[in-house]
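Good morning,

Attaching, inline, the backbone tokens for the sequence recovery test we're adding to the shared suite. The designed sequence is right after.
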């Protein structure tokens, strides 16, 4: 592979970046995938015991069968699957290498990473949204007891643990920590558990709150975190409770600075990147978007399920330009 004469450089080896690599390879294009972490790095950082809400066939790429023990696969099964896809398809992937900048040259892009300089006619940005947590912006958020990434319940057993948020991730964490012996309190900005919470999990969390196994404060927002307490306001009244750990699952957002540095326009309050819905090409000729990055702050709009089709759309568009 000559890194100075690529047809496509794909940023991000998530499921959708891999789908793009397979489509590019099938079309006989010169391509490479640059990934700043491990293969499918976002999935690798998901909670240890999580199960996908999608069934395994909905997570397949290039129609390669994804066999799982239960209909909805586990994190470990997904890592196994995408690893096998990458090895069996012999994809060109460079791991632990970060794309730092892109410069437009005549008819080509120069892509600078922390390890090399590439030259490519087209770029696919498949960088997802899992790297930048939405901050609480309160004093004490930087204490080591606060995390925006939940992994394993064991650390929270017998600990006064606050889970912030009421989305799927927050509800899953609250239930799991409670069932492993944690003393769980949920601080929720809205007036109830989120409507988008999986229909088979929602009754479980509502019942645990109603029976008092998990304490929940609704219409509540954290105002300060200290080593031993958390303060929050609820209906204008500040309360302070003892606390050991804070698991703040308040969502994630795409790297807008990176998108803007590429010249991609971000539209409206939701900062939706500008792209053509038929080709996935952005307002910058030759730069395409794939996967969940397309939704801007609407991070619930795109999944693996509905964005894996982007790969073929983009490669068809690139081939038709040749
Ligand atoms: C807990 C959880 C459960 C989910 N469950 C489901 C589900 O059941 N079904 C479903 O369809 N979807 C699900 N999703 C959504 C979907 O799985 C993810 O958002 C998915 O990872 C999106 O794939 P992607 O390839 O677009 O982005 P990602 O998988 O996020 O991949 C982006 C990659 O780009 C890399 N990257 C970023 N910036 C750079 C850079 N500058 N240089 C190099 N590499 C870079 C990242 O390290 C990352 O590996 C879930 C999400 C979460 C958080």
């Amino acid at each position: 592979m000559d890194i100075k004469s690529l047809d496509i450089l794909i940023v991000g080896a998530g499921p959708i970046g891999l789908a793009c690599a397979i489509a590019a390879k099938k079309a006989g294009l010169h391509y490479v995938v640059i990934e700043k972490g491990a293969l499918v790095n976002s999935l690798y950082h998901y909670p240890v015991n999580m199960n996908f809400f999608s069934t395994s066939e909905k997570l397949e790429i290039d129609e390669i069968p994804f066999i799982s023990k239960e209909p909805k696969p586990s994190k470990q099964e997904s890592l196994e699957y995408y690893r096998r896809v990458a090895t069996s398809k012999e994809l060109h992937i460079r791991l632990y290498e970060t794309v730092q900048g892109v410069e437009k040259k005549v008819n080509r892009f120069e892509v600078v990473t922390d390890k090399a300089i590439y030259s490519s006619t087209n770029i696919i940005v498949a960088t997802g949204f899992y790297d930048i947590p939405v901050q609480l912006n309160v004093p004490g958020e930087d204490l080591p007891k606060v995390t925006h990434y939940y992994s394993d319940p064991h650390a929270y057993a017998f600990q006064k643990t606050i889970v912030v948020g009421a989305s799927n991730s927050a509800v899953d964490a609250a239930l799991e920590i409670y069932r492993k012996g944690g003393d769980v309190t949920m601080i929720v900005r809205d007036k109830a558990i989120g409507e988008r919470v999986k229909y088979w999990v929602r009754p479980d969390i509502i019942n645990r709150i109603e029976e008092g196994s998990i304490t929940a404060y609704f219409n509540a927002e954290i105002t300060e975190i200290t080593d031993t307490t958390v303060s929050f306001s609820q209906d204008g009244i500040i309360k302070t409770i003892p606390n050991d750990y804070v698991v703040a699952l308040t969502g994630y957002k795409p790297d807008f600075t990176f998108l803007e540095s590429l010249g991609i326009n971000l539209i409206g309050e939701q900062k939706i990147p500008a792209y053509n819905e038929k080709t996935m090409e952005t307002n910058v000729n030759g730069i395409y978007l794939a996967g969940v990055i397309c939704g801007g702050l609407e991070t619930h709009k795109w999944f693996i399920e509905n964005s894996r089709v982007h790969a073929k759309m983009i490669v068809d568009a690139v081939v038709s330009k040749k």
